Amino acid sequence: MNKWIPALGLALLLTACEEKPYGALPSPSQIAWQDMEMNIFCHFGPNTFTGLEWGEGTEAEDIFNPTALDCRQWVRTAKAAGFKGIILTAKHHDGFCLWPSPASTHTVRESSWRNGQGDVLKELSEACAEEGVKFGVYISPWDRNDPHYGTPEYNDVFVQTLESVLGGTYGPVFEQWFDGANGEGPNGKKQVYDWPLFNGTVFKHQPQAVIFSDVGPGCRWVGNEEGHAGRTNWGTLNTEGFTPGQGGPSQQSLNEGDCSGSRWVPAETDVSIRPGWFWRESENDKVKSVNELLKIYYESVGRNSLLLLNVPPDTRGRLHEVDSTRLMEFRAALDQIFAQDLAVSQKRKGQVWTVKVNPEKPFNRVALTEDIAKGQRVVSFMIEARTAEGWERLAEESTIGHKRIVLVPETCTSEVRVTVTDALAKPLLGKIGLYYDSIYSE
Description:
The protein is of the alpha/beta class. The protein is built from 10 helices and 18 strands. Strands 1-2-3-4-5-6-9-10 form an 8-stranded parallel β-barrel. Strands 11-12-17-14-15 form a 5-stranded antiparallel β-sheet, with no helix packed on it. The chain has a 3-stranded antiparallel β-sheet with strand order 16-13-18, with no helix packed on it.
């Protein structure tokens, strides 16, 4: 009997070595962020009232006048639809601040809305805290109103702007969204952004925050605004020599990540439920359908990305009925599709996972996960179903990451086999789920 002890010890040692972390790794905040899977973006500000996408910065403060602001309605709607966080455009490129920023004279404080006593960030952050929804902010470094823009002094002004939001007044901020847009100041010069200073300010006040930009460091832009991550999508990225905006990585790198990326910077897929980012009455009949939203879900969350769906409040300061109804329909569709996991059991042998299935029930979706806490490892894999003639290939794909949902033909079988055909290190897959979607049509 004793002769087996050394062999067993060696096997356990090898297993432990194989399961050590590999490559760039996510922080606990990044893992928690990706676990959220879907968040709401709210573009709201003077553009809501002018119909512009990019304001000029010269709009009168009084133009911002929501007649029935109800941030609790935003939050309750988002929560009911299964979204875990809300990110608000606290300051867009026009420079108007939805809170009484001490670093600006172009804010709600200077408007007649609520007699200059209003504060959208206060109302939203309190509503989020009450409902258990996470609160995030978009603060554009471009400012078409501030006279300092285009000079070295502006970077200090922007730091003051950040500090007034992140310093504790509004509680924890789970994500700081930085747009890389950069225009000319009154002096005709573009601002040279001090990104290390900006990021350092965020971490000083909100050390747990995930910072979004083309190069993170918390998460990256997916490279498009159409709602799709790459079919290959690594959570890692090479950021050396790149900056947010025009100095960012290639569109392909943003969309797919880098297999050998030196840093963990997962993709965030931002897309609007409407054609534009800000609410317009003329787009009330152009809200994306449930089918379109399901396609976006499969190509974002289902491709190792977080989905940030923009749902802009209207001039009342409420999510419009068309949008909120569509969100509820989207939630109902997801609940129906993923209500029942048809997988009965699974076992692993080497790099092959075999899943037992009830042969009387069809499936057409296969959901996979990796233990990303130890690094993303799977390069490629294939999915097969057992037939009377042998194994039939249903799909071949690349990368898994936090979550991968593969659309396969409608299939009835007793067994499904997932084979990792290439990996950077020992693949660490979690539970494999099988589901049936009777709603989405390609």
